[in-house]
Amino acid sequence: MIGLVARRAARAAVVLWVAISIVFVLALGAGDPAVATLGPRASAAQLQAYRHRHGLDRPLWAQYATYMGGLMHGDLGRSMRDQQPVAQVIAVRLPRTMLLGALALGFELALGIALGTLAALRRNSLTDAVLMGISFLGISAPTFLTGLLFLQVVAFRLGWFPVGGYGVDPMDHLRHAILPSFTLAIVGAATYARMMRSELIETLRQDYVRTARAKGLGPRAVLRHAMRSALIPIVTMVGLSMPILVSGAVVTETVYGWPGIGRLAFEAISAGDVPLVMGIVLVAALAVQAGNLSADLAVAWLDPRVRPQR
User: Fold this and answer.
1) Would you say residue 250 has pLDDT above 60?
2) What's the CA gap between 142 and 156, in Å, rounded?
3) In the predicted model, is pLDDT for residue 47 greater than 60?
């Protein structure tokens, strides 16, 4: 198991380096950060002074070498917009997005597994058709549309949850996070429901399940054994869903005014703040790699057949 972790960590380091390098080139080549920050009415002297102050007038390879050198020492640079350390800015916003992502992941798994199991047990029935139709709508509906719909109906008209914002205390934070996290979880829950249905139906047809039934094992015990095998692809999808949660958080946090990493990414891209964009990409890439590693370890725990041999 230690060897598996070491191999995954080495692979993750290469993936992080490639992702950071590509985004660095794209971020500097997409536009002029000086114009994005100072505005189109800034004079040529002001633009030149800004570029010189932030090292934007140097060759691209020199800027890349400087950034990577600082990154090796844990320095993510300073934000071009407010001159604050990027690590400090991200540290303030990251726990808020982690709260949103944790709640969304909980909603995804609870709804997806429950609805998928019910549809599998009632396959080819009206219940199965209705649940799969709802899951199809959940996958098809864009996040910004469902977010605006929930804001209009659940927040404005019914008043069940706050319209937006972050709140002032821990319980208030949690109350403000429920609606955006549920919005963020819809696509994932619908995906898990469809996958859980297909995997559980296939598992219930296996020989060992028939043998367990023939030996007189009760329906609940049979279902419990079948669920262990059916959950393996779900666990794998949890790690792969990290990019979806990160990308979906950009739209969801913007719609609900949630001050997290997603909204910060939107603001940084709009302002052309390259160091801040790079820091957010690094955090997102780390989250994806951590999710994939956790999924690999969980699958190895669930299924002994994929565990590395000594």
Assistant:
1) yes
2) 20
3) yes
Rounded to two decimals, what is the model's pTM? 0.75
Mean pLDDT of the chain: 78
Q: Do 15 and 148 share a domain, yes or no?
A: no
102 & 46 share domain:
no
Contacts of the segment 293-299: beta carbons below 8 A, 24+ positions apart: 293/5, 293/8, 293/9, 293/12, 293/239, 294/238, 294/239, 295/235, 295/236, 295/237, 295/238, 295/239, 295/240, 296/4, 296/8, 296/239, 297/1, 297/4, 297/5, 298/235, 298/238, 299/232, 299/235, 299/236
Residue 238 identity: V
The span from the first CA to the last CA of the chain, in angstroms, equals 9
Report if residue 82 sits inside a domain: no
Residue ranges making up the domain that contains 11 = 2-72
Q: For residue 61, is it within any domain?
A: yes
Number of domains the chain is built from: 2
